[in-house]
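During the practical work, I selected for study one protein's amino acid sequence and its backbone structure tokens, as given directly below:
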Amino acid sequence: MFGKRLRKTRMKRGFTQQAMADKLQISLNAYQKYEQSERSPSLECLVHIADILEISIDYLLGRDDFLIACGVPFDED
């Protein structure tokens, strides 16, 4: 779920994978593994990703029920 939502949100914001890797100061390959769900980012990196994409960490992690319970609107597509 994380990888799919990361890719979708990145594309929606108009960033390339290379731009995200550069902003996170990691290799392109490391970033691609996040989107392919082959690797998980550290907590610090996850926070940085959410800040860059201006999105909730809960959304990225697929915590939809929590967001709904809190009354937080989000794009479910």
Summary: The chain has one domain: 2-69.
